[in-house]
Amino acid sequence: GTSWGVGGTCVNVGCIPKKLMHQAALLGTALKDAQHYGWNITQPIHHTWSVMAQGVQNYVKSLNWGHRVQLQDKKVKYFNVKGSFSDPHTVRGLTKAGKETIVTADSIVIATGGRPKYPTHIAGALEHGITSDDLFWLKESPGKTLLYCVYMELFFSISLTGASPDVSLECAGFLTGIGLDTTVMMRSTPLRGFDQAQMASLVTEHMESYGTKFLKRCFPTKVEKLESNRLEVTWKNTDLGTEETDSFDTVMWAVGRAPDTKTLNLETVGVKTNSETGKIIVDASEATSVPHIYAIGDITEGRPELTPTAIAAGKLLAHRLFGQSSELMDYDNVPTTVFTPLEYGCVGLSEEAAVQCHGSDNIEVFHAYYKPLEFTVAERDATQCYMKMVCLRERGQRILGLHFIGPNAGEVIQGFALGIKCGATYPQLMKTVGIHPTCAEEVTKLHITKRSGLDATVTGC
Amino acid sequence: MGWEETQVRGYEEFVRTAQRYHGRPIFALFCGDKDAEGRSWCPDCVTAEPVVRKELQNLPDGSVFIYCLVGDRTYWKDPNNEFRRNLKLTGVPTLLKYGTPQKLVEEECFKAELVRMLFTED
Q1: With an 8 Å Cβ cutoff, is B108 touching chain A?
Q2: Is the ipTM of this complex over 0.95?
Q3: Least buried of A33, A153, A162, B42, by fewest C-beta within 10 Å?
Q4: Min Cα–Cα distance to chain A from B114, Å
């Protein structure tokens, strides 16, 4: 499939191209809003995929080059080879042309990440479908697109299957936003986890109201190529017990990511992996079952699949190995955001995790439905703009988690992550003055509890 | 087959020349104009040129090396000159692989290993 340069998943087929395309879609919505603010924009507005793709792909390539220059400048030797272990201190690499390089080392860090999985029981999945790896690098528009994911839950970060519905929702979001006919099909909606289901349904409701089609509790059985070059997908609707078909230009699988550990030869050197996920088991110091072999990033078991945590873990590891430090990576209260059309940012515990940890009697959930000021003149629906904060009822009412759905969710949550890291409490938050007029200020005004059952819609100003 | 060098002056001549060699790998070094004694008004260009020239032997077969004088100091300082506007150059010297985001700017051009990397890596 698609190949790319230095920088890992984030730079090449993850965060970077995803956020840029999300921005492209947001700009489309902004152009529609602009009319209400007095701009004369001829409708309907059109989007050209190839212009966006070229801009995004060129930027990614400039990052690849920037990384390459930095490595060279810092005198880091770079071997562009496919590696595997020949013994615990030796890595054997092969270039594309088949030339072999042998490298020995005292310490080895494995950071080969994960790749999107292909479904195994759907005929035609491999031959005719693509994954997010390919989507960002298409030169031509994907056209009418079907995205398939197994679960619909957000941030189940320590999930067993590593299912990535975030990817399917984010991609479906920007594809819809740039004007493409987009459908998300999902096999199951979760029965567990009240609150993640709540956040997930607000996000998807918003997407539905903006034109993304959802086929819930359906799963594909086969994908065939038609003479027109379109793809015909057949699926089972488990609610109705029927079989249905439709044709698409593109089918994208988002059924989870898995580490590519098979080719690394880990068993030979004794590095243990989780038998179900294939991920490498590490301890708090990122060490594998072999003391001088470490692993960081998406390839490690039980860690969030996020760029900043991988980078931080790597830096701290370097300091411990060579800088006389003993500081370990802190994986608690890692803030994160899903960049769906209406973004969802959060830090700390989910409501469900807090209940599991402390018991529902010991936690208080404050929540509010709010309306961003910018939506008013633009006559935009803010029904799904929502936030909630989970606190302890005793012990100073420490804030356990904050969840925010709205524009610029990542920017909003980032600052609050510091507060939570410092052990901020509800009374301290109430003493924090809000910035007006913003969406973030509504966090400082949270006071309606779920327990009270009162209407949580923000009024005033 | 080796590689070949061509020297140009000014934006239009550069674009015409690059178009003429379309299809072949094109590397370009942009420097400030030289005076009658052959010295550039740009001191960094004076430092970089010999470093770059020494690495030219590493150019892939079939490459074209365009040595481009951009203009005098006043022209260069204008934030709207065509090199800045169309080629997105931010400084001289700039050494780049035409049609890609791969480039080295100013002091980066003094480093032989970086120049070699630009010439030899994909």
Answers
A1: yes
A2: no
A3: A33
A4: 7
